[in-house]
Amino acid sequence: MAELTALESLLEMGFPKGRAEKALALTGNQGIEAAMDWLMEHEDDPDVDEPLATPLGHVLGREPTPSEQGPGSAVGEGKPVLTEEERQEQTKRMLELVAQKQREREEREEREALERERQRRRQGQELTAARQRLQEDEMRRAAEERRREKAEELEARQRVREKIERDKAERAKKYGGNVGSQPSPPATEPGPVPSSPSREPPTKREYDQCRIQVRLPDGTSLTQTFRAREQLAAVRLYVELHRGEELGGAQDPVQLLSGFPRRAFSEADMERPLQELGLVPSAVLIVAKKCPG
Q1: Calpha distance 14→20 (Å, rounded)
Q2: Which of 101, 127, 131, 273 lies in the 20 to 30 Å Cα band around 46?
Q3: How many C-beta atoms surround the C-beta of residue 194 within 10 A?
Q4: CA distances (Å), origin 288, targets 66, 128, 171, 220
């Protein structure tokens, strides 16, 4: 059975003549499959229908025109004529080949889409893991800072206790070493009994901890114990980490108010210790959403 040329086969399948000639020329006239691959790959190019600047000739897979053949040559000489049945059979084979190429292209695009989706999910997981590691590092640093401050506070307390013990020992050595030699006040002398040198005037009790109750806008409350020297910002951070979603989550800052007397704490107050703000040994605070400035 006679075969159609590559150009005729492409035209039978419905491809425009200029586009078919261009595909054959750019693929080096390597056959209809190579030309079809080029056509399917570049069908969406904006310049796909622009003609080539060079003459096509035999390279395009078509028969030369009479002017190209020269004088004395007969057009179609030696070329078998296809019957209608042969032409339909060959066109059917070409259409099947086009359908196969189209399926291969769709499968390739589907694989590429799946690979892009896998990469997107992998990048999302890596980003989530990085955020989690960052949050864990921040929490670990905060815990280490708390432990360091607590150790410093315990060390300061120990130094105070040691100084008190040394003072007591010195007073005992000075006044208690020879009790009999110390003159005792006359029993009949009226007036108040002089205080012992070892006695100290009563001092105001110092609290090193503060119990804070925080009332949320939904009626619930949070209770936590803080150190008296901690800043008010620690209370706000605790609230932002433990409040519920109804308050806007951790991205919505809040403002702290004192119950009585009524007072709204400013950003400058956040840097002040709880004992300086009069919140020791216990206090009740109210949380309100912070208005955008």
Answers
A1: 10
A2: 101
A3: 7
A4: 92, 31, 55, 13
For residues 96-111, give the mean pLDDT: 83
Structure tokens at 164: 């008190």
Q: Residue 225 corresponds to which tokens in the numbers above?
A: 């114990």
> 12: which 2 tokens?
């039978």
Strands 221-227, 263-264: pairing kind = unpaired
Nearest 5 degrees, angle CA 288-CA 289-CA 293?
A: 125
Tell me the CA distances in angstroms from 217 to 31, 240, 279, 282, 286, one per residue in order. Answer: 77, 13, 21, 20, 8
- pLDDT tens track for 20-47: 888 889 888 888 888 888 888 888 888 8
Q: Confirm if 11 and 20 have CB atoms less than 8 A apart.
A: yes
- pLDDT exceeds 50 at position 208: yes
Phi and psi at residue 60, in whole multiples of 5°? -80, -5
